[in-house]
Amino acid sequence: MATIGDVARVAGVSRSTASYALSGKRAISEDVRRRVEEAVASLDYTPNAGARALATNQTMVIGLLAQFLPDEFAPAMLQYMLGVSDTARELGYDILLATDADGTRSLRRMTDSRMVDGVVLLNVADQDERLPILRAARQPGALVGLPEDCSGVDVFDLDFEETGRLMVDRLYRLGHRELVLVSQPEHVVERGGAYVWRLQNAAHEAAKARGITLTSVHAASSQPAVGRELSALLDAHPSATGLLINNEAAAAALPSVLHERGLSAPRDLSVIGRYSDEFARTFSLPFSSVESAPDRLGRMAVRQLVRRIEGQVGPGEPHVVRFVSPELVDRGSTGAPRTAGA
Amino acid sequence: MATIGDVARVAGVSRSTASYALSGKRAISEDVRRRVEEAVASLDYTPNAGARALATNQTMVIGLLAQFLPDEFAPAMLQYMLGVSDTARELGYDILLATDADGTRSLRRMTDSRMVDGVVLLNVADQDERLPILRAARQPGALVGLPEDCSGVDVFDLDFEETGRLMVDRLYRLGHRELVLVSQPEHVVERGGAYVWRLQNAAHEAAKARGITLTSVHAASSQPAVGRELSALLDAHPSATGLLINNEAAAAALPSVLHERGLSAPRDLSVIGRYSDEFARTFSLPFSSVESAPDRLGRMAVRQLVRRIEGQVGPGEPHVVRFVSPELVDRGSTGAPRTAGA
DNA sequence: CTGAAAGCGCTTACAG
DNA sequence: CTGAAAGCGCTTACAG
User: Fold this and answer.
1) For the whole model, what pTM was predicted?
2) Residues A50, B50: C-beta atoms closer than 8 Å
């Protein structure tokens, strides 16, 4: 394999000149530049990434920590991963991926051994075990998901509180007075999935302020349990006219549950979910939903991370906590409530 | 950040001794080993991966090339990725992930710059553009998916021909005489998705040998097109009693299509799909299916790749092409055909 | 059982 | 505008 030394020899210059000719970091005569370029082409030279990393202290690699936890819905995670990966590539970075459920070990390995210039954490919990490790690392980190303590990291998330209010408000204005909110499984909450109760609390407050009834339930994140639970829930709340779904698996399962019961939205029930448009397409979900914007969040996280890595944001400059505002994508699943007894 | 030099100094030994004490590559006195270990602990030393890679010519990283093509079904890809990633980690390797649609550039970058010790290619086409690059690389490669030319690489795939035969056979034995096979979109075939016609051709041969009718159609890989196509297909073939689905998106869409038409399997129609059990759970698909074994294929590919990387298989030793035999997971969606006129 | 030294392939002050 | 040299942090023959 050709090295910069080979290039220098073939071009008839010193190694440093060859290096500078390639990096453009100092003025080079036209003649030399051309000879170096020819040498590179004829030798099919590519710099050794490890050697470059050692010399420059930069790897041009971003660590991506995606935890696939047993009770979360994998296809939803994929969207975030692709948002991060695509943006990183655009900005010249590769992705080192860790998918194990125990992200702490992988995070420590990546940062301590300096395999990465920075790190993106997905699926961040309220008290995320990975955060102390990240804060102790010399590399900057960006999160998708809001932890309790945001110090030392840049944080991006959907505004789940506003989402909860928006969902309730929307149905309230259409005339609904009894709603049910389906959240992620309790396990997710216990593990610190703060977004679950952020949305839930805000929804309850909004319902209270408007004097309407909101019941919240947790549902499983996989079939067939989630289907059964949805069915049981419809039995238990026969007078509810609106369904708010903050649980991707439940959203994916809902169409067949409604079908089986001969129900359709918005005729019998108004439904608002919270997932991405891409997700809706993949699962062919016919429900209006608040866009969860995984690609946009991934993109924002990587952009900010790269700005930090490349020193475009001063080390003293405060870290950001940025919320994406919920946008409702109307798929026609909301309407006036069915009239009682109809 | 602590270096091996710091460790050596604190332990009162030379750098080489410190290195050997950690690698265990030569005999070390008990006393020295202990002092080195203490120094490592007190300094919180972790080797610099780039420096180690430069010295050893090994990165302990495997490249994973996952192409997310516009007309393929992303959640199915995820399964393969996780199979690869999990196995790599077990064997001590990290994953460098490339998700761009143009895998050739990423592959070249990873191999030429020596960021990886080996590479796994997912979603391999019959004439895969990435293969010439992979063959020219010094790193070994393993494929999930069978290309026309398997030289120079280890190949793992589901036995799609046997799968086609099995599907036809199963329904034939139950008494079916008119079947429809739903494949991936034509684009996938044109791009070289050889598995599509491998299954299809074998199914046709099997049908011919048994004197039964098999119609094959291509269907889109996303909603709502695929739903409409499935519906049109049921209209066009009213006398068909069996449906073979070699298209994940079609399988995911089928339950609602059947529902809308008031059909159920196996009462009105016998259905056999081809996807993983995990996939069936995620999408709550009630159809019997041939297990596509993404985790197993990913695992096999990584295992063999690591054996090559680590020289446990001689460089002269021939490359393997290994097929996973199809196994039918019975979810009760096949039965005797409905009697004509019933 | 241990150490001094060379080398992996880059980049970048330093000197001219 | 260019070159000789040091250095990044490891590993591993070579020598004792």
Assistant:
1) 0.93
2) yes
